[in-house]
Amino acid sequence: MIYLDYAADSPVCDEVLEVFTKASHTYFANPNANHILGKEAKACLEKTTDEIAAMFKVKPQEIIYTSGATESNNLAIKGVAEHYGRKGKHLITTYLEHSSVTGPMSYLQEKGYEVDFVDILPNGQVDIEHLKELLRTDTILVSIAYVDSELGVRQNINQIGELIKTYPNCLFHVDATQAVGKLPIDTTYIDLMTFTAHKIYGLHGIGALIKKEKIFLTPSIHGGVSTTPFRSGTPSLALILSMKKALELAFAGESSHYEKVQAFNQLIREKLAHYPNVLINSSDKAVPYILNISLKGIKASDFQVKLAEKGIYISTKSACTTPNTPSRPVMALTRDRKRALSTLRISLSHLTTSEEIKTFLEVFDTCYQELSK
Ligand code: PLP
């Protein structure tokens, strides 16, 4: 089995699982309980939050734990829109976003908010000139992914953030799900930032929203204050500790993992360039972890099935999109519906081996020859 779908999910790391198991036994008490076991759990939670906050150079009170990136994106977008709706009802996003960003945007459109989509340049990066044209005094939120999940394009977050800061009513939300642990993250101009553990060899069901202190949100989940008034519910200390471990490991390996994956990505690009019916969609602004291609005259789902029959697992698009519909990011980039309907996403990891890449390229060739007949 060769797994090349790491942008969708990653296998949990043993060390992370060990932390989870141990913490589940040690800190089973509710951190909000008034007795000694509760107080011990609370002290551990506070220490862990301090450490996670330090990794992102933010304040501990700026971390809101959630069940993952989908919840964080919903909380950020709907929470800002509802809280600041009196200042304006204009929102801006891109066609590159994950469904957990476009979903809340569509929901808000139905509630009377106006949503604009900023153009992207041929390299997949946001067209800053178009963003300048779209920004208004009643724009309350811009939501753009640090790295999108289909093309893997890395945005100029600081440049975009600096521009947004000239609009005092406007906040900047960044979905950093595909960037955290893979790139150095700079939160200077970011007001709200999403990430999740399961993309970085952590467990499912835990993520966070970083929300700068001065910002308010209408909560999505109401209840007791618990650790934060913005998200009720007993915090899962074991999951939080396990996410800290996943973050530590990802940050420690960040540059060496990047270099290793870059070499694999380069090799795949070089080899695939020889196939006349393969079009590379990820530009040189994409991170090496994601390589998106289109197949001319070959049904991508047939290709995916053929690869799977030979033990190779990749996806056609982001895992959370509707099957057999065009890829929105590729459509926005190329304005070519056929090309957007025939995408394959190869996503790599530091766990990928040279042997796996070699086999993948051989199997790719076999499938290509068979399906081109
Ligand atoms: N945002 C991006 C960019 C993603 O790639 C994903 C996962 O595919 C999500 C959000 C949703 O993450 P989660 O599964 O943690 O809700």
From TrEMBL:
Protein family according to the UniProt entry: Belongs to the class-V pyridoxal-phosphate-dependent aminotransferase family. NifS/IscS subfamily.
Taken from the record, one Pfam family name reads: Aminotran_5
- Aminotransferase class V domain boundaries: 2-360
Q: Which InterPro entries match?
A: Aminotrans_V_dom, Aminotrans_V_PyrdxlP_BS, Cysteine_dSase, PyrdxlP-dep_Trfase, PyrdxlP-dep_Trfase_major, PyrdxlP-dep_Trfase_small
Tell me the cofactors it needs.
pyridoxal 5'-phosphate
Query: What's this protein's name?
Result: Cysteine desulfurase
Query: What does the UniProt keyword field contain?
Result: Iron, Iron-sulfur, Metal-binding, Pyridoxal phosphate
Q: What's a Gene Ontology MF term here?
A: iron-sulfur cluster binding
Q: Gene3D superfamilies given for it?
A: Aspartate Aminotransferase, domain 1, Type I PLP-dependent aspartate aminotransferase-like (Major domain)
